[in-house]
Amino acid sequence: MATASVAKVYAVDELGVRITTTKKPWLLITARGRVNSTGWREAQLVAYTYLTAPADGVQEFDFVALRPDPGNAQLPVLTPVSTELELPDVGIKDYWGSKMPLRGIRVHAVSNRKEVDILGRSEAMAASAEPMSRSKAIYVCPIPDADVISFEADIKPLFRPMDVNVMQAIAGFNLHKLEDVRAKADKILDRLRTNMPCDGLWPAEDVARFEAWIKGGMAA
Predict the structure, then answer these.
(1) Is the dihedral of CA 165, 167, 173, 175 positive or negative?
(2) I need a labelling partner for 212 at 20 to 30 A (CA). Which of 24, 58, 147, 178 fits?
(3) Between vectors from CA 182 to CA 177 and to CA 185, what angle results, nearest 5°?
(4) How far apart, in whole angstroms, are the C-alpha atoms of residue 180 and residue 37?
(5) Is 129 helix (H, G, I), strand (E, B) or coil?
(6) What is the predicted pLDDT for the residue at 194?
């Protein structure tokens, strides 16, 4: 029997970091985003680990969740997810080592990323006389490659039933059929940038996602 796998969520919409004022601060990281269907669960932030301190002093995370269970029914609609992570006893100014401060938190999703500054750039430079070496990041746990944009998983859910019905009526093609969307992809992209859908344009990240799908070969 197939089991659910872990993958990055579709988008991170909000990222917040709270820092306590205790002697050794605690960081509380909160993230809100969206997945491309119902049925996803157990969202979490997965930290990168590093061979050496990153050059920009930013701790990175992947925003991931368990995919829907195979065989269970899902609705192809963008669905909100959220999570939070506590990092206790964090030494901000020596996070990466002596006088090597934590400068920010960066969270990655499939379609975008968001970053919150922890330490101001000028303050960070004053705290560290030596430049940080560039690093190669590795994951705490393997994350399946979710960066290949597909029609079924990433593009089709963006078109609502009302969008499909309207386009079928006025233009004679189906936004939920791969062949139809491939044939009209460039024209659809132009409309998404200007006047489609008629009740409000897509977020810029969704338009960019559609454009990336075209440039990537319009995978099924």
Answers:
(1) negative
(2) 58
(3) 115
(4) 22
(5) coil
(6) 82
Rounded-to-integer distance, Cα 125 and Cα 216, Å: 39
User: Do 106 and 114 meet the contact criterion of CB atoms below 8 Å apart?
Assistant: yes
Residue whose C-alpha is closest to residue 203's, from 212, 192, 190: 192
* Domain extent listing, the chain: 6-139, 151-215
158-169: per-residue pLDDT in tens? 888 888 888 888
Which amino acid is located at 196 in the chain? M
Q: What is the pLDDT of residues 173-209, one digit of tens each?
A: 899 999 999 999 999 998 888 888 877 778 877 888 8
Paired tokens of 43: 């969202």
Q: Which residue type is seen at 214?
A: I
**119 close to 127: Cβ distance less than 8 angstroms:** yes
Q: What is the pTM of this model?
A: 0.57
Whether the Cβ atoms of residue 207 and residue 189 lie closer than 8 Å to each other: yes
Alpha-carbon distance of 40 to 54, in angstroms, equals 32
Q: 27-35 and 79-87 as β-strands: parallel, antiparallel, unpaired?
A: antiparallel
